[in-house]
Write a structure and sequence with these properties.
The complex is a heterodimer.
Chain A: E1 7-8, E2 13-18, E3 21-26, H1 28-34, E4 37-41, E5 48-49, E6 54-60, E7 64-68, E8 72-78, H2 88-91, E9 100-106, H3 114-125
Antiparallel strand pairs in A: 1-2, 2-3, 3-9, 4-6, 5-8, 6-7, 8-9
Chain B: E1 4-5, H1 9-14, E2 18-22, E3 25-30, H2 34-43, E4 45-49, E5 54-59, H3 63-68, E6 83-89, E7 95-105, E8 108-113, H4 118-128, E9 133-136, E10 141-147, H5 151-159, E11 171-176, E12 179-184, E13 193-199, H6 203-211, E14 216-219, H7 221-230, E15 272-279, E16 290-293, E17 296-307, E18 312-320, E19 328-332, E20 337-342
Parallel strand pairs in B: 1-3, 4-14
Antiparallel strand pairs in B: 2-3, 4-10, 5-8, 5-9, 6-7, 7-8, 10-13, 11-12, 12-13, 15-18, 15-20, 16-17, 16-19, 17-18, 19-20
Classes of the chains: A alpha+beta, B alpha+beta.
Chain lengths: 126, 358
Amino acid sequence: MIPKDLLYTKTHEWIKIEGDTGIIGITHFAQEQLGDITFVELPEVGASLTQGEEMGSIESVKAASELYAPVDGEVLEVNTALEDAPEKINEDPYGEGWLCKVKITGGKENLLDADAYAQLVAEEEH
Amino acid sequence: MELFKTPLNSWHKKNRAKMVEFGGWEMPVQYEGIIKEHLHCRKEASLFDICHMGEFIVTGDKSREELASILTHDFAKLPPNRCKYGFMLNEKGGVIDDLIVYCLEENKFMLVVNAARIETDFNWLKKHLTSSTIEDISFQTAKLDLQGPKSFEVLKDVFAQEFNDLKYFSFKEIVFKDINILVSRTGYTGELGCELYLPWEKAEEVWEELLTHPLVKPGGLGARDTLRLEVGLPLYGQDLDEEHTPVEAGYGFLITSEKNFIGKENLGQVKEKLIPLKVDSKRSPRHNDEVYYNNQKAGIVTSGSFAPSLGHAIALAYVKVEYSEEQEFIITDGKKKLTAQKTTLPFYTQRTARIKLS
């Protein structure tokens, strides 16, 4: 459940990098930990993101947590379908449950690859 | 500290439940997902492992009057085979626990208490009971809750007998496969249902039998919490505590006992009130969020959740009495800001708990 072609953060976001743009979401592990997702607050189009800083928030029936920017960049597009159907994040975290698309300006070198992220998840699951 | 385990602990783990700590116990919070389990209970029948809750037996010639001086329950109206909901208060009138008292015989009672309060309650009762004896049977007694509009159909099919004569807040004892089971028409979901009390070591057998019925699915504590909040039932430790009286929590109407129980003389002091709030978004107020009225701090959220049967968020909050009749509040955790309207309980009105069974 950890796709090889994505990069990851310690805070359980993924990013799919294509040239200087990236698509961002939360991982399967993260959605499973949260449980049924009921609300997501996304950054606005045009907002500038700083790696590791809060870019939005996500809530499930049981918990609320922050979303952190995986890279420096600017928001090009957000997944507006999540407003009415946040459960898409549970159902398809690497596909229809994507959060936003960004123009990347920096920070790519600090991301985890799939193996490093798998190790992190294994530690958290202990 | 090692967590306590119910007799169904390994069943839950085998069946991929997500386990969490609750009141010192390792409990299943969900199996398939809170929303699915919640909706299943509103429509069919759900089975909950509630073995963590505590049970005491109080007996003695004077047990009725002694309990009536410690608990708010009206013992004058508690004949055998009936049960009542009420409170145990400290001298200030604050709630030590909320509990159901079962009248097993004229002078023999079972008290069902919250898991996290077993020790506190037992010591308090022991201290205030003079001639009666009290026994803690929590670790011998399993409790399984079967809740949902189809639950009595399930009972009839599985136990091969009728339960239609069972009135709300009454109980009867049955024998099923040589297992003694107390079947009580009570619950914590707002739906028709029962709470089953049986020997600890028989829990898995009865649990499995009930789950063979096609209408029954297991429900976790997550769904139990959203179900109870939608119908406005309080959770001890959040909506009830030693700092608030049951009158402040909105249960003054329930206290009809003419006895002089501990804490009674302070029930008239109302500083705060527990009020129901409705939020027009799916974003949820959470426990300990602050409640404001016109930029003045009015109180604090005790329970808050997205309500699966309603499609929006709801909350209970203690607000200072001078704000308790206001209609519009702002709820905040410092970051989010939610507009909330005061509403009436229950939030969810299509309850089946009290329906007449033909």
